[in-house]
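In response to reviewer comment 3 from the previous cycle, which asked for concrete evidence that the modeling workflow produces usable outputs, we include below a single protein chain processed end to end. The sequence was submitted unchanged, and the resulting structure tokens are shown without manual editing.
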Amino acid sequence: MQTVLKLTNLVKEFGTLSAVNGVTLDIKEGELFALIGPNGSGKTTIIKIIVGLLKATSGSVHVNEFEVAANPIKTKSQIGYIPDEPKVWNRLTGEEFLNLVGVFFGMKEEQRKQKIQELLKIYDLEGVQKGFFENYSRGNKQKFSILASLMHDPKLLVIDEPIVGLDPKSTSITKKKLQSYVKNKGTVFLATHILDIAQDIATRIGVLDKGKLIAVGTLAELRKKAKLSDNSSLEDIYLSLTK
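The workflow returned the following structure tokens.
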């Protein structure tokens, strides 16, 4: 199986603070990988390095064999990014925002129109797309942020806290969409501190603590590493590994 995302000895320092400390990780095509850890463990820093918003102090990130720092346009063209806070312009409508994202990724007008209509159906947003972002709820802003990440059919989705602000129905829809995406040869790298999400949908899980990757594996493999029973939850595993 092809490696879609590769982190090699990744280090990020902010002055004397080591936010990410030697993280090495391979994510294969069709994986839904969840990186878990407490606030301040380095999850968002890793996400921002992957998508090119931060530069690593040392080490490297490759997306489909292209190094992110050396090939920013090539790598970004293959990534759909969902930040922890929706990044939108208040005086744009949802439809205008999706259309603008499509333009950024070189999609033709007819492609954009067709894709927008397809995406709106995911969360039943037909009609809502005509309103301005400044009038949207936090949940609808998040939905449009998710839809924007899918506009150009990326090979890799990079997500920082996927369900913040979503109601239970929308959370369920999002989880099913991510699972469908990886079944169709997409790859997901998501960071979250909501352990239930990781336990429900991830094919593999990484545990990050104080900038270090202390464990990686399937739920069964992590239970074994933590020396816990087969019915132990991810919360049990996490507390055991980080104590």
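The beta strands are 3-14, 17-28, 32-36, 58-63, 66-67, 79-82, 156-160, 187-192, 204-209, 212-217. We consider this sufficient to address the reviewer's concern, and the full set will be provided in the supplementary archive.
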